Amino acid sequence: MIENNGGTTGGSRKRLAVVGGTIALVTILTGAGLLLGPVANAVNAARAYDAATPCGQRQTRDCLTVAPATVVGPWTEETHLRHADIIFATADGSRQVLALDRKYEGDLFPAGARVRLISWHGEVRDVEYGSGRSAGTSPTTDNPHLAHQVPLAWAMGMIPFGLGLLWLVVWSAFFSAHSRRSTPWQVMVPLLGTTAIALAGSTTAVLADEVAVTLRWTAIAAAMTVPVTVAFHLWAVARGDTVAVEPRRDGREHVFQAWLLGDRSGPDGMPAHSHLVVGPGVLAFTNEPTGAFRRAPLPAGLVLERVRRLLTSNPDAMALHGDAGRGCLVAQCRDGEREVLIAVHRRNMPWLVGALPQTEPASAD
């Protein structure tokens, strides 16, 4: 006897939607908060730093102080990807270790070189070196123009990723349970697109010195990713979920793994069968791997409507997306008014198609 009891309950689906939606909204709002808070404050500080003038006789917190110094050498022999710790000796004889936002280059800061330390709000922000055409400026890690990088990287990663996660929640809650075409690519394609935008935005934020540069390159990444995502999505829709399978018969019995989706008629609410026996005059379920006994014949009126891909909304779909059911196809059958779904591995589907009468050819749509 075949029983089909359905899959994920509405209550658990709603709980997952609430939890996932909350996480997505918190992620998006946190990213927006970083943009409106730390990033905006860093931009304002950078503008104030650019507008500051050298201190005169009357020093204020907002003016720039210039102090001569001499390069002593690197703080450590170890090199960093993004900064170099260099020791400077000031005119009063004290020494100060500054982290420059660049890798250590001995030709720019050789021992004994004379430099100028530019301070603002009590911290050294820039180190000026050389003179004439060889003059240059190296920012320290306390430079206001760099303060936006870390919060902006988080924001540019969190907002697109949160949008992708929100789409996952919306799709799971409102579409996957009702649409017969609710296959995983419907959610994964947009999610991968938003993840690509998040990676581009966060990476650019760390490398770029200006917020505008990060936003521009993120917009370019979005302009490239969104059309590709939409095109792939439309292609997948046009492709459909029906699979053409040629029936096979060779006059022998074949036993292979099969899943009656939604079956809970076995002990402790487990599936009653694990294998299918197909052959001349034989079409039966069994829980015996050899198929030699304990056979349960399929209903005589069972007919095949079509062969299709496994849908996420199908009962037991999540379990079959694991190693056991990877690459499965589903024989969508009907026994009178009742729908019967049988999942088998792709390589075994021709034997099942050859054993089932069809309402119409199992061809691609």
Description:
There is one protein chain. α1 (10-51) packs antiparallel against α2 and α2 packs antiparallel against α3. The longest helix has 42 residues, at 10-51. The protein has 6 helices and 13 strands. It has helices spanning 10-51, 149-175, 185-207, 211-239, 317-320, 349-355; strands spanning 65-74, 84-90, 95-100, 114-120, 123-129, 136-139, 254-260, 275-279, 282-286, 295-297, 303-309, 328-335, 338-345. Residues 5-9, 178-182 and 361-365 have low confidence and may be disordered. The strands form 2 sheets. A 7-stranded antiparallel β-sheet has the order 10-9-8-7-13-12-11, covered by helices on one side. Strands 3-2-1-4-5-6 form a 6-stranded antiparallel β-sheet, with no helix packed on it. A hairpin with a 2-residue loop joins β4 (114-120) and β5. The chain is an alpha+beta fold. It starts with 9 loop residues before the first helix and ends in a 10-residue tail after the last helix.
